Amino acid sequence: MKLFHGVFLSALLASSIAVGEENKTTNVPPDPFGDLEHSPKAPDYTMEVDRSRGTFSIDAEDGNYTPGSHFANWLWTLNTERWGNYSVGLVYESKRPKLGVQVKVGNDVLKGYAPRTNALKQEDPMILGTAYIEEKGEHPLMLLTGGLSNDDSFRVHGVRFSPAPESEPHGQSIDGSIELAAKSATTYAENMRYEPKEEKNCLGFWTAQEDWAEWVFEISDPGEFELSVFYGCGTGNEGSEVSVLINDQTKEFKVEDTGGFQEWKEVKLGTVELSVAGENKVALVPKTKAAKAVMDIQKVTLTPVQ
User: Is 0.70 surpassed by the pTM of this model?
Assistant: First the structure.
């Protein structure tokens, strides 16, 4: 009888294990994010680019700090080398949960709450928004904080300015084409910038070979596109060589005399493949500068191949 009872329990246990393996039962709850798919990302440039170019900072030690009972004020004189649109970021370290901050530069007032920082990221600025600097030279820069901001609980290190586009690029048109206007480029530059005058409306002052421009844009319908650059170049300035980076693809052209810096010429650079919906990038990077200026840029276009 004992032998039968042991055989029965062994068979029951084996049957339970087999059923469990078949049904793959587990006490671990299912992963609620298991069905999420990672969105594909467009590949990056194969050429190294300098996204720090055109960025500058103003340090706390160069400013005047005035503490108050409920607020504190910082005042600097900002000396800029070029006009244009900039992202404005506060560099600080804080042990407080948050502190209200307000930056005024030119006619722009930017507000936000500065959260607690950690040691790994305290050198990264908190971006408050963008400010437009209308002309080069000296400008007052003011920072108002909702409490003391020069002690161990909250310490300002400075304000950082990074190039920003003057407008967002238009999305892909209903016919599939993409037009990247000059004013929607980010100009990583010390001289080159967007020129807003109606008769210009272009990227100009491209007098430094190290300056470059980038467009970041969204597409909804990937595919093969014809790439064109519309540029102008004055007599005697022709001959510069330029790389056009489109994600991980590269095209090149040599600048020709168009009869004037705002006399636009279209150069067709062949086809490129944009295989990923979402964010894509195009950049213009000079390889050489033959004379005083590289060129002026009106726009870059991508036209679907039929």
Answer: yes
